[in-house]
Amino acid sequence: xxFYPNIPGRGLVTTPKSIGLDYEDVELITDDGTRIHGWFIxxxxxxxxxxxxxxxxxxxxxxxxxxRLDSIKLFNNLGLDILIIDYRGYGQSTGKPTxxxxxxxxxxxxHYLTATRGIKENKIILFGxxxxxxxxxxxxxxxxxxxxxxxxxxxxxxxxxxxxYPFLPVRLLSRFQYNTKEYVKxxxxxxxxxxxxxxxxxxxxxxxxxxxxxxxxxxFLKMRGGHNDGFIISGSSYVDALESFINTxxxxxxxxxx
Length: 258
Known about the structure:
The chain is an alpha/beta fold.
């Protein structure tokens, strides 16, 4: 019930070219030899001095990177370079998804940005939606990004499992952890948690639990709409909140390094 790489289809259905964006195909090799595919989408509209940061986008548990063009366009409009990857077993990435594997995939993406492209850690913003929220929180706990955005995610796999199966000893039965709120406790960069009261898959209370576990500076964005369309339904309030958070976080990082 965790991974759905073939829904709505494993193959890539389009590319950023279809929305007028240039991109680079990226192939990463994880520590265990898995080949991870992704796109690096540079922001050609902003000069190097104007670019706010680079966003590492870790998506949810279904579909692949080609189903995230709406969000890619949104972040591009905010002046960000973007790296988005498919976890092992998703899209054109090899292997089979596992919890430990998704962490290795995220780590490979981080290494690509910092080592291969030479981007400073304090110029990288981590963004994770749904399952990706937990993976991005784990990655943030291992490094020092400029900021972390966790959208429509769960506090832990155990918590979600207990909600779905209230009469089963989920903590004893489940081999998955994805303990988002514990990862967040180890993070000291700015954190934005976004969640909708109308989320039909992951309850609003899960997002609040993540937020309550975060250190200051922390922010909560109350969205509208369902699990998969909340960022669209929320409209300008969503975009404005992201822009404000990103600007504040990057500017603070710049001040800290001067």
